[in-house]
Amino acid sequence: MAQSMNLKPFYMGFALLVVVGSAAIWWARSTGSAPVEVGPIPVSTSDFSGYVLGSDSAKVEIIEYADFGCGACAHYAVVTGPDVKKRLVETGRVRVRFRDFPIPSHPQSPDAHLAAACAGEQGQFYPMHDQIFFGQRDWTRQRRPERRFRDYAEALRLDMDRYDSCVKDRLLLGQIEAAKQEGITVGVHSTPSFVVGGLLVVGALPYDSLVSLVERVEAAAAR
To answer: How do beta strands 94-100 and 60-66 pair?
Structure first.
């Protein structure tokens, strides 16, 4: 699991909802790593931006903080992500919100996040997200992976003049850093991390474990 630097919160003015209580769930091993940790955190999702997949009417939102260069994040995207999309998102049960959280130990990650953000400006964030994660073993071996990201953009039939301009300007790096700093304010220190119903969950969750969390949120809302 990739580790982040201990940085000071960037957004001190965020209104936070204090979630009281404690929880610890011992999940089955998914990738051979230690069990994930679950704990209460002060968090309000109402002002979070990010890349949304799913219906605004979905009763449960999963916020994912991930690094495109993180192996555990790729494992989640490749193994669990398709089930989440088909069985939870497309059925209207869950809405997913992706938040950028590039890790300093992955020097190529900012370029990957930038490529996805530039695709996002053309409404193609999640298709680029999938291309980058599924091709992680390839582009992480390259010193300058920008060419590979551009190949992905061409495969998605993006407006390449617009894409190239976005990558060259690098203006969206500020947005990416802001998303990361927001994650830090709610206690994110490693990737992937998820916020589900006010709980911060760390690790590449298998599908069954994620569904258990969703069911807990649904049950609490029904009371």
So the answer is: parallel
Compute the distance between CA of residue 40 and CA of residue 27 in angstroms, rounded to an integer: 17
* Burial class for 177, CB neighbours closer than 10 Å (0-12, 13-18, 19+): middle
- 63 bridge partner residues: 97, 195
CB 198 within 8 A of CB 40: yes
Cβ burial of 113 (10 Å; 0-12, 13-18, 19+) is buried
Reduce the DSSP state of residue 79 to 3 states and report it: helix
Domain boundaries, the chain: 22-222
C-alpha 101/C-alpha 29 separation (Å) is 24
pTM above 0.85, yes or no: no
The dotted CATH code for 22-222 is 3.40.30.10
The token duo for 92 is 């209207």
Over residues 164-207, the pLDDT tens digits come to 999 999 999 999 999 999 999 999 999 999 999 889 999 999 99
